[in-house]
Design a protein that fits this description.
Layout (H helix, E strand, L loop, with lengths): L2 H12 L2 E3 L10 H12 L4 H9 L2 H11 L11 H12 L4 E8 H11 L4 E5 L8 H11 L5 E4 L5 H7 L2 E4 L3 H10 L3 E5 L4 H9 L12 H5 L6 H28 L1 H4 L9 H4 L4 H22 L2 H19 L7 H20 L6 H24 L19 H23 L2 H6 L7 H19 L7 H7 L1 H17 L1
Parallel strand pairs: 1-2, 1-4, 2-3, 4-5, 5-6
């Protein structure tokens, strides 16, 4: 080996690896995480947080670090960056965490990982970012005396001081600027497609639940009126966008718990492919589309229905879902609310039979959802669901109340078949008894599958994908047609 090669190897070994935190080591922003944590745990402290912001971002970061500290165990770390850190340590290089986040946050992350020789963050007065970070590292290690892993345009001065750019999920503009600024620019982790992440976060597959908005139109027997059909379709789209905005809000509130869930941790927000500010903007845009569709194509009253749904789901996200039984009844009410919304959209008075059936039926499905979640933590009798007030010891009660509520819904439907109103619309109402048998089979089967841990957490989505459930739906339609 030549002397030049030996000198180069020694230089690479001696150069420390400096790693940024937000957006680089983490697929999230700790200040945004802290703000969401404060909003959820202590919203009355928001005025003080805003007052701190008026004194500068370092003050806000210090306030959040002290009043809503992030739990490093729940944060989404990029495995590629962790591998790069491990390789640097194996090569004998020093590794430093250098971040604009508050020093307290940097210390907690460094202590949790145990991979850094030193952690340097903002001190509550100066924001260690961009030129300040470049001056600090350049002054400490000299020009080109360190390698820096960063992610954003704010890191351009730091890459210039390092003499090379090691990038993590850079935007196309940042990557182009870095390539023009330094002679060596590499991308360790490519940027994920944001449009795909936004669509996934809106969860359009969940829109299948909103088919319930068409139920009042069908049972009013006015489905030959194309004006009402158009209004129902627009109401469906409006309500779907509104529900999507709430899904995003729920994910924002449940971030720590979702990251520890076996399937929810893959959602764009929990995985970090969509940032917290991007998610907030997405939720507001989706809600804006919902209100616009309702105001223009449906009825003014339907706008109030949407706002009522937002209020109820927000109360559920922040308060109600933390209370046992209340959370299940709220979930059932939210499904019944869709039926009510469908009635408002087409100006149809709802049947009490329909409302009673809906409440009992969806109470059963809400219990299925909680039961399937409890099955996952059944091995530890003292462990509770994250963000929920249930423990495995509750399973016997849930398995009693849940199926009972489902069978009560079948009983309501059976009583409806014998009511005088049925004779006005059905020439062969005895065919409706077939629906009772189908419902009994489907409800009991759902609970069997839940007991075997063979069902998705959400039974409604499970039904949309399950072949036997789809067959049951087809048979229900056959019975309705036969009864007509």
């Amino acid at each position: 080996m030549s002397n030049a090669a030996i000198d180069s190897t020694q230089a690479d070994t001696e150069r420390p690896l400096c790693v940024d935190l937000d957006g680089t080591l983490l697929a999230t922003d700790t200040m945004a995480e802290g703000f969401m944590g404060l909003l959820k745990s202590a919203p009355w402290k928001l005025p003080a947080a805003l007052a701190a912001l008026r004194s500068g971002r370092p003050k806000l970061k210090r306030y959040l670090a002290e009043n809503a500290p992030v739990d490093p165990a729940t944060l989404p770390y990029r495995p590629e960056v962790l591998d790069a850190i491990s390789e640097a340590r194996a090569a004998g290089r020093r590794v430093l965490l250098v971040t604009a986040s508050d020093q307290g946050t940097a210390d907690r992350v460094a202590e949790h990982l145990g991979l850094f020789d030193e952690a340097i963050g903002s001190d509550g007065q100066n924001n260690l970012k961009a030129h300040r970070k470049a001056d600090y590292l350049g002054g400490r290690f000299g020009a080109g005396g360190f390698q820096y892993l960063g992610d954003s345009s704010a890191d351009l001065p730091v890459w210039k001081a390092a003499g090379e750019a090691s990038m993590v999920c850079p935007s196309p503009a940042t990557q182009r600027a870095a390539e023009q600024l330094v002679s060596s620019a590499t991308v360790l982790v490519p940027r994920p497609p944001k449009l795909e992440a936004a669509v996934r976060e809106l969860r359009p597959h969940q829109w299948a639940k909103n088919i319930l908005l068409f139920v009042p139109l069908y049972f009013s027997h006015q489905y030959n009126d194309m004006g009402l059909v158009f209004a129902a379709v627009m109401a469906f789209l409006s309500f779907s966008f509104c529900a999507s905005s709430i899904y995003v809000l729920n994910d924002l509130v449940d971030l720590p718990a979702d990251r520890q869930h076996r399937s929810k941790r893959n959602r764009p927000l929990a995985a970090g492919t969509l940032s917290i500010p991007e998610a907030v903007a997405l939720a507001l845009a989706s809600l804006g589309v919902a209100v616009a569709l309702a105001a223009i194509f449906v009825r003014p009253e339907f706008v109030l229905v949407l706002l009522g749904y937002v209020a109820l789901t927000t109360a559920y996200s922040f308060v109600l879902k933390q209370h046992m039984i209340v959370d299940v009844l709220t979930l059932a009410s939210l499904f019944t609310y869709r039926v009510v919304a469908g009635g408002v959209a087409v100006d149809v008075k709802l049947s009490p039979w329909l409302l009673a059936f809906s409440i009992f039926f969806f109470t059963s499905l809400a219990f299925v959802k909680r039961y399937s979640e409890l099955i996952q933590v059944k091995g530890d009798g003292g462990q509770s669901l994250k963000g929920r007030n249930y423990v495995p010891a509750d399973i016997p009660i849930i398995t009693s109340a849940g199926p009972a509520a489902g069978l009560l819904a079948v009983l309501v439907f059976a009583l409806y078949i014998n009511s005088p109103v049925v004779m006005r619309y059905y020439s062969a109402p005895e065919a409706l008894w077939g629906i009772c048998l189908i419902l009994v089979y489907w409800i009991i089967r759902i609970w069997f599958l839940a007991a075997r841990d063979q069902m998705h957490d959400d039974p409604v989505l499970f039904a949309v994908k399950d072949k036997m459930s789809l067959l049951a739906g087809v048979l229900v339609i056959v019975c309705l047609l036969a009864a007509r």
